[in-house]
Each structure stands twice: as structure tokens, then as C-alpha cells.
């Protein structure tokens, strides 16, 4: 099967000599919901910039649904929709015009562009704002406007560069639902985000990029399985004056109603609860201290940094 | 897949329509000021001072100055429309809407340039109508007149496009109009015939490209010119070809548009 996105040995060195991408390679399969993660300055936006021609690569190859961008960039661009990190529309144009005009840039007849504009503005809850100048919209509405604009030509591959940055929780969740809906309808989605909870709940596969190199490329499930331990916060019904005995687990009293327990790979939570129950400690709820993917992400970056330091020595 | 003719046409007409919509939306900034300025020129230079100057090139001063003033309005408006619109698109990053699309560079350039031409010609038409209040105009060579005004408009719209590509700030888009375009226009035979100048200044004036365009237009309207009109057409065509090539080269290499 032809990959939705195939990147081979992609390199980018800027004019000032900064090497943003040091030969990255990965593939995204059709229909996937893929997370491209990395700290600030890792090379995510450079990669996306190359895919949509705003950044010129200095080496390697990119194919979008089998179309090599060096051979037929216009053809590849027809398959691609991009929602950038920064707002990049005319602040003085009306919402409807911004979306409809983009259809024209993809060769869509006016009537079809108008129909699609209505369709996506309605889906994204912006139809009532169609005659409003973009500068009058809230931050969340501006993000949704960019999503509607990116979808106007109904691309097979949609790339979203931090689409939920600065968006409130309610709106973020409605955007997640919308993205899951279009993904279920067959659109391949690549997402970059700093909210790892978002990546964990939406995406199936992941690539982590750091300092211009891919340091992990696997499925989210496989990655989560590599966690050697998880730290949980347990909320207790009764007031605790001192920490109970945790048996073979490592734990501590956080405050009079909560405990922090580290569960190593292979240890059973049932065993922990049974142990606490025997001491009349009733647990009412539990949660991870931090997002699991976040813990892995931080540890992978730390490991990469350590390896680089060792190589430097 | 090569870019289809339908995509080229749709994309071009979308850019052109957006450009026209932009300058029509802000008509108090784009259409009214040149009309007021040119009306003042007609009143002061044509009517008040012109009546004391007498004939120039065999015509009343008002008749002489009208073609030059129309051309001046066309030149400045074609230039300023493209330079401000394309630079604003760069500044707000909305130019990325076009750059990420399959629209070829030459279509982007043509859309913006023709948008500038539309404004230049609309302002030129309004100024012509106002000029008719002050004097009667009988156009001697209608085809030549329309052709030279169109070509001049294209040339200066292209120059505005290149200025916008290079510009890094709003200051950068006013430097060329202030320090290059205005002096060239004022010294380009709009207000006087170069026959009034000494041989040295006449020779120097002939290095000014605006002189050729103004005189070619004046030839079309009045049938008189300080220069050979064929040279004017050849020169404008040559500059259009050179500036188009330069603009496309800059876009292809992503000058200040892509990284």
C-alpha cells in the first residue's frame, strides 16, 4: 500500500548554517492518526514547512500518496491540507471569503467552493460568523477558521501544527471529536502538539523528533508498554495521619487524604489494593501523577541528551 | 500531474477578484485621494497657472498637461496597489495561503499585477472624466493610447510586486515611490516639453523611462511627442519582460517568501 506520507533522509540546513533536520525518515500510513512530537526547535515545523513548500529542503525525498514533491509538487499539494501554528490569513477579510478564496487557489469552481465553505463553516461552528472580519474572532474561532480553510479542497492528508494551542478545554474537546470524525471518514491526520494527553487519546502512531533527528517511531501502544513504572495518586476515603504500609510497593503520604504509589512493571494493582484494604485504607479514586506519554517523552529526551553528552566526551 | 488550465484560470481569477475587492473595499484610501490630487493639479497647473503659460507643443497648457497627469495617476496607483497589497499579505503571512496551494508562481504574479492594473486603469479613467470638465479631449490614436496605458500599468505593477518581495518593513515599500518613482514622474515630461530644456538636460531626460511612456500616451491623445513612439513601446515591452523574469526568479528561489 502506498504510504500517505513517506519521508526519506530529509535534511534542512538554513542559510545561517543551522542544521534543523539531520536526515529524518518515517512513514505515515493512509487512514492513520499520527503524532509528530518534539520539544520546541526540534524540527517539527521545519518538516511541515517542507511538506507544504514554505521551507526548501536541502536533501532527501518526500512523497505524499506516492507523489514525489520534486517531480510534481502541485500534484502532491492537492493531497495535502495544512493548519499552521501561527494565524496566517488576512485579518480584514471576512470568514466566508477566506475559506472560499482558498478553494479558488486549488482550482475549485466558485459554486463548489461556496458549497464546501458553507459545509465546513457549519461543521466547525463558524457559519454565524461568516460575514465577520477575521480580526473580530476569538483565538479558538481563528483556529477553527484555519481548519475549515485547510479542508476546503478535501485533502487526503491533513497536517495540524499545534491546533489546540491556547484553546479552552471545551473547545479543545469539540475539536478532537471533529478530527476523529474526519479521520474515521478516511482522512489521514498528522498532529503536532505539546499536549501529550491529546496525542495519547487521539493518535495511533507516533514519531518523536529531537534536535533534527527521529528518536522514536512506533505505535503509541508499543511506546506505552515500554514504561518500566507508573506513578499513581490514590485518593482515600478516611483521613490518614501517617503513611500505611505499602508492602512491596514504593509509596508515600502526600496529604491526609492522598497517597503516591510507584507501580513497577510486573507488579499488580490488585495486590496493592488488597494490601491497603487489609489496613482499612479505602481508595475512592486513582489517577496517573503525570500523563504516561509525557513521562516517556521526557525520559526519551533525557536519554537522547545523555547519549549526546557521552558522544561529546 | 501538470497544473490544469482550469486550475490556472480559477486561481488567477480568484487572486484578481480578491485584489479588486480589496481596493474597492477601501475606496476612500485607494480611489478618492488620487482623484482629489489630480483635480488640484488640473485647477492649479492647468487652469490657473496654465492660462498664463500659453501654448506648449502647439496645444494649450491644459491640453498638454492632461495626458501626463492621467499617466502619472495610472503609474502611481498601479505601483502602490501591488506593493501595499503583496507586502501586507507577506506581513500578515496570508501569502502562505497561495504558496502552499498548487497555484504556479507566474499565476500568483499575474493575479497581483492585473489587480494593480485594474486599480491604475480605474483611477486613470476617473481622472480622464474629471479632465473633461476642464478641457475637451479628442483622442488621435485610440488603439495606441489604450495599449501604452495598459503596458505602462503592467510595468509599474510589476515593479511594485518586486518591491514588495524585497520589502522587510512598511518603510521599505515607501522608499522607492518617494525617492525614485516621484522624481522620475515629475521629471518625465508630465508638466513640460523637454524641448524647453538645454541639450544636456534633454539628453539626460532621455534616460528617464517615464518620459517615453508619458510621451507615447501624449502622442496617442494629442498626436505630438518629444520622442520616437516606437522606442517607447519597445522599451516598455523590454522592461516588462525583464521585470517579469526577475520577479519569477525571486519567487522560484523563495526570496523573502520561503526559507
TrEMBL record, chain B:
Record's subcellular location: Cell inner membrane; Membrane
Pfam families for the chain: ABC2_membrane
PANTHER family: INNER MEMBRANE TRANSPORT PERMEASE YADH, INNER MEMBRANE TRANSPORT PERMEASE YADH-RELATED
Cellular compartments per GO CC: ATP-binding cassette (ABC) transporter complex
Name used for this protein in its record: Transport permease protein
Family: Belongs to the ABC-2 integral membrane protein family.
Transmembrane residue ranges: 31-49, 61-80, 112-134, 146-167, 173-194, 230-251
NCBIfam families found in the cross-reference section: PRK15066.1
ABC transmembrane type-2 domain residues: 25-254
Organism: Microbulbifer agarilyticus
Alphabetically ordered keywords of this record: Cell membrane, Membrane, Transmembrane, Transmembrane helix, Transport
GO molecular-function term, one example from the UniProt record: ABC-type transporter activity
Membrane topology designation: Multi-pass membrane protein
Amino acid at each position: 500500500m502506498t504510504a500517505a506520507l513517506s519521508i526519506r533522509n530529509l535534511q534542512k540546513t538554513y542559510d545561517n548554517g543551522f542544521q534543523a533536520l539531520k536526515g529524518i525518515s518515517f512513514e505515515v500510513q493512509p487512514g492513520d492518526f499520527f503524532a509528530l512530537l518534539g520539544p520546541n526547535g526540534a524540527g517539527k515545523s521545519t518538516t511541515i514547512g517542507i511538506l507544504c513548500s514554505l521551507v526548501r529542503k536541502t536533501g532527501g525525498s518526500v512523497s505524499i500518496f506516492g507523489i514525489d514533491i520534486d517531480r510534481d509538487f502541485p500534484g502532491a499539494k492537492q493531497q495535502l491540507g495544512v493548519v499552521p501554528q501561527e494565524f496566517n490569513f488576512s485579518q480584514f477579510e471576512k470568514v466566508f471569503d477566506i475559506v472560499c478564496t482558498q478553494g479558488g487557489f486549488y482550482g475549485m469552481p466558485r459554486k463548489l467552493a461556496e458549497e464546501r465553505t458553507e459545509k465546513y463553516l457549519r461543521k466547525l461552528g463558524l457559519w454565524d460568523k461568516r460575514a465577520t472580519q477575521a480580526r473580530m474572532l476569538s483565538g479558538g474561532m481563528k483556529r477553527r477558521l484555519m481548519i475549515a480553510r485547510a479542508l476546503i479542497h478535501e485533502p487526503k492528508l491533513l497536517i495540524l501544527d499545534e491546533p489546540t494551542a491556547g484553546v479552552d478545554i471545551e473547545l479543545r474537546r469539540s475539536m478532537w471529536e471533529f478530527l476523529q470524525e474526519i479521520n474515521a471518514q478516511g482522512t489521514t491526520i498528522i498532529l503536532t502538539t505539546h499536549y501529550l494527553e491529546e496525542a495519547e487519546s487521539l493518535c495511533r502512531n507516533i514519531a518523536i523528533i529531537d534536535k533534527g533527528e527521529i528518536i522514536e517511531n512506533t505505535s503509541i501502544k508499543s511506546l506505552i508498554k515500554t514504561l518500566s513504572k507508573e506513578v499513581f495518586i490514590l485518593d482515600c476515603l478516611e483521613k490518614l495521619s501517617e503513611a500505611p504500609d505499602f508492602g512491596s510497593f514504593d509509596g508515600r503520604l502526600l496529604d491526609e487524604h492522598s497517597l503516591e504509589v510507584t507501580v513497577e512493571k510486573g507488579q499488580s494493582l490488585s495486590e496493592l489494593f488488597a494490601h491497603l484494604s487489609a489496613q482499612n485504607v479505602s481508595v475512592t479514586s486513582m489517577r496517573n501523577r503525570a500523563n504516561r506519554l509525557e513521562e516517556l517523552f521526557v525520559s526519551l529526551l533525557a536519554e537522547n541528551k545523555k547519549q549526546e553528552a557521552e558522544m561529546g566526551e | 500531474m501538470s497544473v490544469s488550465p482550469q486550475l490556472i484560470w480559477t486561481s488567477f481569477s480568484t487572486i484578481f477578484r480578491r485584489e479588486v475587492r480589496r481596493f474597492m473595499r477601501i475606496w476612500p484610501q485607494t480611489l478618492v485621494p488620487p482623484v482629489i490630487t489630480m483635480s488640484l493639479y488640473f485647477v492649479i497647473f492647468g487652469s490657473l497657472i496654465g492660462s498664463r503659460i500659453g501654448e506648449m507643443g502647439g496645444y494649450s497648457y491644459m491640453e498638454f498637461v492632461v495626458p501626463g497627469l492621467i499617466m502619472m495617476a495610472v503609474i502611481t496607483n498601479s505601483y502602490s496597489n501591488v506593493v501595499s497589497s503583496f507586502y501586507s499579505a507577506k506581513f500578515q503571512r496570508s501569502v502562505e495561503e497561495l504558496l502552499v496551494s498548487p497555484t504556479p508562481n507566474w499565476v500568483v504574479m499575474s493575479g497581483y499585477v492585473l489587480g494593480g492594473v485594474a486599480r491604475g486603469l480605474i483611477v486613470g479613467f476617473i481622472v480622464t472624466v474629471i479632465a473633461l470638465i476642464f478641457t475637451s479631449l479628442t483622442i488621435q490614436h485610440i488603439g495606441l493610447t489604450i495599449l501604452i496605458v495598459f503596458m505602462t500599468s503592467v510595468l509599474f505593477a510589476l515593479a511594485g510586486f518586486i518591491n514588495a518581495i524585497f520589502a522587510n518593513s512598511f518603510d521599505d515599500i515607501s522608499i522607492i515611490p518617494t525617492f525614485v518613482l516621484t522624481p522620475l514622474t515629475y521629471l518625465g515630461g508630465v508638466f513640460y516639453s523637454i524641448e524647453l530644456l538645454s541639450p544636456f538636460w534633454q539628453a539626460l531626460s532621455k534616460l528617464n523611462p517615464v518620459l517615453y511612456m508619458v510621451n507615447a500616451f501624449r502622442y496617442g491623445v494629442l498626436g505630438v511627442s518629444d520622442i520616437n513612439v516606437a522606442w517607447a513601446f519597445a522599451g516598455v515591452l523590454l522592461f516588462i519582460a525583464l521585470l517579469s523574469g526577475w520577479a519569477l526568479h525571486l519567487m522560484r528561489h523563495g526570496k523573502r517568501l520561503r526559507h
